[in-house]
Structures are given as structure tokens and as C-alpha cells.
Amino acid sequence: MLVLSRKKNESIVINNDIVITVVEIRGDKVRLGIEAPKDVPVHRQEVFEAIHGSKAPVVATKTDDTEPPA
């Protein structure tokens, strides 16, 4: 898992076309704004689990084979 620190109104960019912006920080809650292409589904995890019937989190796998093996 990649962990990043961001302040209000700061963003991260994923794959050149998804932008996640910290909109508000209030106590222990953070509001995020997400800009993504219409063909990219964006769901809260509990909604994703309800749709797909899974409790397991989605884990991204590395597909870049250019890095030499350890």
C-alpha cells in the first residue's frame, strides 16, 4: 500500500486521468473529490462489496516487468 500525506486542496493523480483531491478535513473525517473518466467505476468499499459480494479488499498487483527480480 502506498501512503501519501496531503493537505486540504492538494491532490494526487493516478494513471494520468484520475485526480483525487482533499476537499475538507473535519475532525477524523476527510472528504475527497474524485475526478475520473465516466467508464471508470468509483465506489466506496462497502458499496463495492455489496455489488460484488466480497469482503476481501481489492489489491492492485504490479504488472510492470521492467524491474529486475530481487
Task: Report a brief summary of the structure.
One of its GO terms (biological process) is regulation of carbohydrate metabolic process. Helices cover 11% and strands 29% of the residues.
Q: Which properties best describe this structure?
A:
70 residues, 3-stranded antiparallel sheet, repressor, RNA-binding, Translational regulator CsrA
Listing every helix as H and every strand as E from the N terminus to the C terminus, the arrangement reads EEEH
> Between the first and last Cα atoms, what is the distance in angstroms?
19 Å
Number of helices: 1
Percent in strands: 25-35%
Strand order of the largest sheet: 1-2-3
Q: Tell me the structural class.
A: alpha+beta
Task: Characterize the overall form.
Answer: globular
GO molecular function, one term: mRNA 5'-UTR binding
Subcellular location: Cytoplasm
Keywords: Bacterial flagellum biogenesis, Cytoplasm, Repressor, RNA-binding, Translation regulation
Protein name: Translational regulator CsrA
Task: Please explain how this structure is put together.
This protein has one helix at 45-52; strands spanning 11-14, 18-26, 29-35. It has 70 residues and is an alpha+beta fold. It has a domain at 11-52. The protein has a three-stranded antiparallel sheet, with no helix packed on it. Strand 2 and strand 3 form a beta hairpin. The protein starts with 10 loop residues before the first strand and ends in an 18-residue tail after the last helix. The model has no long low-confidence stretch (mean pLDDT 87). GO terms for molecular function: mRNA 5'-UTR binding. It is found in: Cytoplasm. One of its GO terms (cellular component) is cytosol. Pfam families: CsrA (PF02599). This is Translational regulator CsrA.
